[in-house]
Amino acid sequence: MSKVLINLNLPFMEFSKDYVEQLRKNYSQYEFIVCNTKDDVLNNIHDAEVLITFKFDKEMLDRSNNNLKWVQGASAGVDFMPLEDMGKRGMILTNGRGIHKVQMAEYAIMAMIMLSRNFHVMVRDQFNNVWGKNIVQGEINGATVGILGLGSIGRETAKKASLMGMNVIGLKNTKADVPYVNEVYGPEEMEILFEKSDYVINLLPYTEETEKIIDQKYFNIMKESASFINIGRGKTVNEKDLINALENESIKAAVMDVFYEEPLDENNPLWSLENVIITPHICGQSTKYMDRLFDIVEQNIKAYVKGNKDDMINLVDLNKGY
Predict the structure, then answer these.
(1) Cα separations (Å) of 10 from 37, 56, 210?
(2) What range does the domain containing 29 cover?
(3) β-pair partners for 70
(4) Residue 321 pLDDT > 80
(5) Running DSSP on this structure, what letter comes out for residue 315?
(6) Are 179 and 156 within 8 A, CB to CB?
(7) Are 258 and 111 in the same domain?
(8) pLDDT tens digits for range 243-259
(9) Which among 9, 25, 41, 295 is least buried, having the fewest CB atoms inside 10 angstroms?
């Protein structure tokens, strides 16, 4: 009997026993094994055919003895996986694209509202017993938001921002009309997006081409009143250039959920900057996360069992990395 390993042990987001039992009932030709640690995975992966997981690395791949055919990632990003070696083995990789769109779009809207109302200033005043009656209270209504990356999260953010009265512009690899986006720019036009935006939301994937792509050039052309929100990949931003822009107040502020190195070093200057809001890479989390993941897993297993790879959703191009 072929094995399917499930490695989704996170204290704040549980893949319930009911989901596991439902998979066992619907696909009795497979043995479903729940792995709570990486060691559990390493001890079982030598004869496993499928792995459903947040993490997959070279050690796991090497231990699989070429038996592993398909990895179902539980997150949208897969840049940390050994993609080249997986491609050489002809493996299938699917990801969790779409799981995050609701909660991450809500986070983006929250970030913009907090910045417009200077909420971070009021919170600091609270801890210093300061009654800051003269703190500027702005609105996101009528402001322009530039979204770098118009995938499922970007599109959901565009929808919500548009309904809040914002002017939405966005960046897309291939220019095409996107619902709720007033102007779509190609990669060669990224400067225009930075120039026009009151808020720039970074959702770019991490690849060799995008590493540190957002640097001083782009921060220099932002409005002084504009803010930068990073909820995509930390390594797409030149962090030193961003810190410099924030320290010099050439941009208003930043909301950061992802960083070049994580966890963020306690000595990183970002911690002490008053125009920065830091969250610990949690904007993609949600109490409804596993419900959405299960829908993807079930659909993909159904297609996989029938041998219909083309019917699997969220197939990753192992050459492109997304």
Answers:
(1) 10, 15, 29
(2) 2-99+287-311
(3) 50, 92
(4) yes
(5) B
(6) no
(7) yes
(8) 999 999 999 999 999 99
(9) 25
